[in-house]
Amino acid sequence: MKRGRFITFEGGEGCGKSTQIKRLEAFLKEKGIDVIVTREPGGTRLAELIRGLLKDEKDDPPCDRAELLLFLAARAQLVKNVIIPALNSGTWVLSDRFSDSTFAYQGYGRGLDLEVLKIANEFACDSLKPDLTLLLDVPPEIAALRMRKREEETNTSADRIELAGDEFHRKLREGFYALAKAEKDRITTIDASGTQDEVWEAVCKSLKRLI
Ligand SMILES: Nc1ncnc2c1ncn2[C@@H]1O[C@H](COP(=O)(O)OP(=O)(O)OP(=O)(O)O)[C@@H](O)[C@H]1O
Ligand SMILES: [Mg+2]
User: Fold this and answer.
1) What is the value of pTM for the model shown?
2) pLDDT (tens digit, 9 = 90+) per residue, 84-124?
């Protein structure tokens, strides 16, 4: 049995991750490839409960370290119970966010020690790494417009992390750049400011080395 491929999508809110993942899922299915999509945090019952805790903005929001550990607990559960079994059975896994979001948000964004994050994350993932990571990059102004449009369309409002402010989002973007620079073989940065079709074309191009 040939092991499945593990592809992750990263980038700030509203950059188009979920949109492009849906397209890639349909594309792979059409090619006869078994594929599942997971989202972070979430993807198992326990991890979805943790997702709910993280998005809670009431009177006792998680402190930075609690936030990190909740994210990692959710990831550990997802890796062990969903991602590894799928890959071992030949199924491809597309994940809407993964470890790089931890480094970007909790490390570069919140300022937690990157070395600590590295060790803790590797422990949570049982050392699993994506075969390919697509970093969708858009200027924050464009992402904010897309988010507003989506909120109108879906009648939802921004959550605690989405409301973190411009300075935080600038740090995030810098963090993602630094990660991409450090791991050029794994992470491909895609300019996601164009139309959905343009971004999709770039996604397809970067997949060539996997298919
Ligand atoms: N290339 C694009 N051009 C214009 N609008 C887009 C593009 N890609 C996605 N959108 C729209 O922008 C909004 C955000 O896209 P999407 O939900 O895919 O982003 P996301 O990265 O998954 O965001 P989040 O991190 O909040 O889950 C959606 O309303 C989507 O339809
Ligand atoms: Mg999304």
Assistant:
1) 0.93
2) 999 999 999 999 999 999 999 999 999 999 999 999 999 99
Structure tokens given for 75: 């990831």
Neighbours of ion ligand 2 (CB under 5 A): 18
Q: Where are the alpha helices (DSSP H) in the chain?
A: 17-30, 45-55, 64-78, 84-88, 99-102, 114-125, 140-154, 166-182, 196-207
Computed over every residue of the chain, the mean pLDDT equals 93
Residue type, 185: D
Residue 148 Cα to ligand 1 midpoint, Å, equals: 10
Domain boundaries, the chain: 6-207
What CATH number was assigned to the domain covering residues 6-207? 3.40.50.300
Nearest C-alpha to atom 24 of ligand 1 is from which residue?
13
Alpha-carbon gap, residue 24 to 96, rounded angstroms: 12
Contacts of 4 (CB under 8 A, 6+ apart): 34, 35, 86, 87, 88, 89, 90, 91, 92, 93
Element (DSSP H or E) covering residue 35: strand 35-39
What separation in Å is there between the alpha carbon of 103 and the centre of ligand 1?
22
Burial class of 98 by CB neighbour count within 10 A (0 to 12, 13 to 18, 19+):
buried
Contact indicator for 152, 14 with CB cutoff of 8 Å:
no
Nearest atom within ligand 1 for CA of residue 194: 1
Q: How far apart are CA 28 and CA 90, in angstroms?
A: 13
